[in-house]
Write a structure and sequence with these properties.
single chain, mainly beta, 8-stranded antiparallel beta sheet, 2 helices, 8 strands, elongated, disordered N terminus
Length: 153
């Protein structure tokens, strides 16, 4: 079975700190940060697939299952005079109907924020991402969701 690892960009350990600073900048700039349009974009994706060989074993030893993928998501886009934010978060729950021990939750996040903390003097920019990749490309991929290419970015 393929192994996965979570990748975090080099800025990811600072993500909580960065988010705090960006939101502090938004609060500190008053109406300047909110001067432009902000959009919050919720979404929900549900996919269903049937796989007749989830372990990619040889003929005669196959194991089949139905696989459901549920992925709620949230996107935020906005630009103010002194603040810009663009992020997407969409966790993905993979559910196996007969083999529940293979269920898993995958986290996916991409984000970028810019803030002018002190006008014309102090600026802050942060970005980060969390995703999953194959560590071993020679194993089975049967536990992957119906949307393998998107889920393994």
């Amino acid at each position: 079975m393929r192994q996965f690892k979570k990748n975090r960009s080099s800025a990811a350990p600072l993500s909580s700190f960065a988010a705090s600073l960006v939101f502090a900048a938004a609060a500190g700039t008053g109406s300047d940060a909110l001067a432009e349009q902000w959009r919050v974009i919720p979404r929900l994706t549900i996919e269903q697939a049937y796989n007749d060989n989830i372990d990619l074993t040889r003929k005669g030893t196959e194991t089949s299952d139905f696989i459901t993928s549920i992925s709620p998501g949230l996107g935020v886009r906005g630009t103010g005079r002194r603040l810009s934010l663009n992020f997407d978060y969409d966790p993905e729950q993979i559910l196996f109907w007969k083999h529940g021990n293979r269920d898993e939750l995958r986290q996916r996040f991409r984000g970028l924020g810019n803030a002018e903390l002190i006008e014309q003097l102090l600026f802050f920019e942060a970005s980060g991402s969390v995703n999953q990749q194959f560590v071993n490309n020679t194993g089975a991929i049967g536990a992957s969701p119906p949307s393998t290419p998107r889920g393994c970015e």
